Target: enoyl-CoA hydratase
Amino acid sequence: GVDNQSIRLEKRGAAALITLDRPKQLNALNDALSREVLRAAQGFDADPEVGAIVLAGSQKAFAAGADIKEMLSKSFADLFTDNYFAAWDQLATIRKPLIAAVNGFALGGGCELAMMCDFIIAGQGAQFGQPEIKLGILPGIGGSQRLTKLVGRSLAMDLILTGRLISAEEARSAGLVARVVPDDQVLAVALEAAATIAGYSAPAVMMAKEAVNRAEETALTEGLLHERRLFQASFATQGQKEGMSAFLEKRKPAFSGR
Ligand code: CO8
Model:
């Protein structure tokens, strides 16, 4: 076993759970935590028993941003030379679905971390924002890019320039959040979604994630071509033969994970 200081890990069937666990700092993201989350996600990504991963915080905070105490005295040279927070960029290489289960504050780096996940399930009381401007800085792990893609330029500018927070419902209607549920059901709903996904054919799930992500990166014709090749490739999997046979034979499919 790996010794984690800032996170807790659990497996619930085929759903894996990473819980941020720095309650006194409202799960502020520091260097150690970011490395632990990446290592845990990579471990679950390589674990054939795991089909999807949930990332959660506490009731009070998913994460209140990057750790301001840790950042205060850093210089440009420190951030640049150490490639501070580079671990977060590598979360994008995780091939299995990553679901953010958000209660309470998702601010700054916390909001950015939630946006790095594939989709967000939020509690009614959750609050989202990019308040970096109040600290004399700006979003640094993707907020200006991912938030703009998700909610559009106008609301992204509003949030990033004023630092104001929005409710879960506003975040849902703007396209940042996939589902809003009662606060005490966030984790259960996220784990249920993870279990549902984990029940499908693993290569189809990874191909679907890859195809959707391609939409962010490429022009339409290239994206459509990529999707078509993946679709064709899915016919080389056991899952396609099994999924279609099971449907026609009116039984539950038994996916091999291949
Ligand atoms: N960093 C460090 N400590 C924090 C943070 C944080 N981001 N947020 C809260 N804490 C600590 C508080 O200092 C406090 O500690 P203590 O008990 O020792 O005084 C404890 O958590 C509890 O916080 P509060 O007493 O403030 O709790 P409240 O309920 O009154 O307020 C808030 C909750 C509104 C969430 C408030 O804590 C807050 O505004 N936090 C800061 C939010 C923020 O500004 N986040 C953005 C941080 S900057 C960032 O994320 C940049 C990311 C890009 C990095 C790029 C690197 C390459």
Observations:
- The mean pLDDT is 97.
- The pocket of octanoyl-coenzyme A is lined by residues 25-26, 28, 64-69, 79, 84-85, 105, 107-109, 131-132, 135, 139-141 (CB under 6 Å).
